[in-house]
C-alpha cells in the first residue's frame, strides 16, 4: 500500500499506476496526479481525523489541497449524504460522533475528490459487528455506483469474501498465493493459506443445538 501510494520507495523495480510511474522521491506537487487518483481509509476512525477541524473542513481538505475546481462546499454536503450523514453535520467536530459515524466521515474524505482507487487499511476492524455490516454495505454500494477500484488490507475473511473479486495472501511481506477470491478461499493451494482459513472461528452446530 505504501509503495502504491508513493509513501515508500521500492528497493527494486518500479510501481506504475495507470501507466505512469509512481516516484516516491518526487515533490508533493509532482505527486498531485497520484493523490488525485487515490483515496485512503485508515483503520482507526478516532486517530485519523483532526479533532481541531470541523467535519466540513476534514472532508473538504482534499478538494482545496488538490486545487479541485467547482463548488467545494456543495461537494462536501453531497458526499456527507453519500455516506449516510446529514449535510448539517459539516459544522460539527469529530468528538461529537460515534466510531461508526467517524469512519463514515473518513470514507467521505477519501472519496470527496472522486478518486479511481480507494485503499482501505483494515477499515472495519475497529468497529462493532452492526456498524461493520453497515460500512461494508456502504462500500459495496459506492464501489458499484462510482466504478471504484478497491484495494483492501484485511484479516477478516468475511469482509474479503464480500468485497473482493481477487485476493492476494501474504506472509512475511511476500505473496504466497493469489487468484479469484472464491477459488483461493474454497480451494487454497498453499499450506499457509489453508492454515489461515482453518484458524477462522466456527460455531459447532452440535453445541448450538444442545
UniProtKB/TrEMBL annotation:
InterPro entries in the cross-refs: ABC_transp_ATP-bind, ABC_transporter-like_ATP-bd, ABC_transporter-like_CS, P-loop_NTPase
Pfam families: ABC_tran
Alphabetized UniProt keyword annotations: ATP-binding, Nucleotide-binding, Transport
SUPFAM superfamilies: P-loop containing nucleoside triphosphate hydrolases (SSF52540)
Family: Belongs to the ABC transporter superfamily.
PANTHER family: D,D-DIPEPTIDE TRANSPORT ATP-BINDING PROTEIN DDPF-RELATED, TRANSPORT ATP-BINDING PROTEIN
Descriptive protein name: ABC transporter domain-containing protein
Source organism per UniProt: Microbacterium pumilum
